[in-house]
Amino acid sequence: MSASLRDSIPQIANPGNLDASVQEAFALMLGCECRRIAASRFNAEDSLIAVVGFGGILSGACVIRSSVPSAIRMTALITGMEIAALDATVQDALGEICNVIAGSWKSRIPELAAHCALSVPAVISGNEYWIRVHPPESKLHHMYQFDESTFEVMIVCEGLR
Amino acid sequence: MKQIRALIMDDSSVMRKIVERTLRQAGVELECVLEAANGHEGLDLLERHPVDLILSDVNMPSMDGLEFLRQLRGRNLAPQTPVVMITTEGSEEQVRQAVQAGAQGYIRKPFTVEQIKQRIVPLVSTG
Fold first, then answer.
1. Any chain A CB within 8 A of the CB of B112?
2. In terms of DSSP H, where are the helices of B1-91?
3. Dihedral angle, C-alpha B20, B26, B31, B34, nearest 10 °
4. Mutation test of the interface with chain A: which of B18, B88, B97, B109, choosing the one with the most A Cβ atoms within 10 A?
5. What is the DSSP letter of A56?
6. How large is the greatest C-alpha to C-alpha distance in chain B, in angstroms?
7. Nearest CA in chain B to A76
8. Does residue A37 sit in helix, strand or coil?
9. Mean pLDDT of the region B9-29
10. What is the largest CA-CA distance in chain A?
11. CA distance B82 to chain A (A)
């Protein structure tokens, strides 16, 4: 393994890398524009969360949290089908979007591209959940909007070697 | 271009549909599409059904794409069939491993129709 990942902290903390990854995924997979918005708090009665873990030189995760209607809208755009309600296809689609954003984000940071692996996505439904991690060394937390829908993306880095 | 039979392997059914749709948008004429969620399912299908093209994710549960490639080549299953990896993982080392295991191409997600045209159409345009 070459240089320490600590040399890459400015790139890991660069919000532009996450924005570019989200925008690329939405443009190419969903065929729509997506932009970061200023809202700092995500509110939804029922939410869907997709998590892709980072392993290797970086411990952490990429997390997407969306309301169920937003996740259904994403799925309709990505599949070209009408989606009536939360089902396995919606969960699968949000997991894959999270997977692509996580992969795109790490590929923008050379040390991560070479020495960081991704887990398969996990998807959580409902509001009664907690994701507990050690205090992160670095965290990006952005809200985005596509069409009239919003969702949030977090990159949590809890261990940098 | 002749009609081809393709095997698409990805643990995401949504991604399998995206790959199929993008192949069609790139002008690939698909006679039939087989789908598998991991390497075990892919090998099982190939034991019974010949295909002209295999597109595989790398990061899948049960049997990943690289192990699938090694077993495919080790068993001499579909020896003439081109295999292209389509994955979020795209480091030089991962590409090297895939090529060493017998892949003819490597495409990073998210991909464009143009990338599919450039890297897959030439593999299925001959014969």
1. yes
2. 13-25, 39-48, 65-74
3. -20
4. B88
5. E
6. 35
7. B14
8. strand
9. 95
10. 49
11. 24
> From the centroid of its chain, how far is CA A63?
4
- What token pair was written down for A94? 């949000």
Q: Tell me what the mean pLDDT of segment B98-119 comes to.
A: 93
Q: Which two tokens stand for residue A160?
A: 């940098």
Q: Which amino acid is at A93?
A: A
Residue A24's closest chain B neighbor by CA?
A: B110
Contact of B58 with B87, CB cutoff 8 Å: yes
Calculate the dihedral angle through the C-alpha atoms of B79, B82, B87, B89, rounding to the nearest 10 degrees.
70
Q: Could you tell me which of B33, B43, B38, B49 has the C-alpha nearest to residue B10?
A: B38
pLDDT of residue B127: 53
Predicted TM-score of the model (pTM)? 0.91
Q: Which two tokens stand for residue A19?
A: 């924005």
pLDDT, residue A1, reads: 44
| Paired tokens of B77 | 């299953």
pLDDT in tens, A51-71: 999 998 888 999 999 999 999
Instruction: Choose the closest CB to B14 out of A25, A78, A103.
Output: A78
Q: Is the ipTM of this complex over 0.95?
A: no
Residue found by looking up tokens 């029922």 in the block? A46
- The amino acid at B35: E
Encoded tokens for B106: 């490597």
CA neighbours closer than 13 Å in the CB half-sphere of residue A19: 9
Q: Per the structure block, which two tokens stand in for A87?
A: 């089902």
pLDDT digits (tens, 9 = 90+) for A81-135: 999 999 999 999 999 999 999 999 999 998 888 888 899 999 998 877 777 667 7
Task: Answer yes or no: are the C-beta atoms of A138 and A12 closer than 8 Å.
Answer: yes
CB contact under 8 A, B108 and A107: yes
Cα-based torsion angle of the residue sequence A12, A109, B112, B43 in order, rounded to the nearest 10 degrees = -110
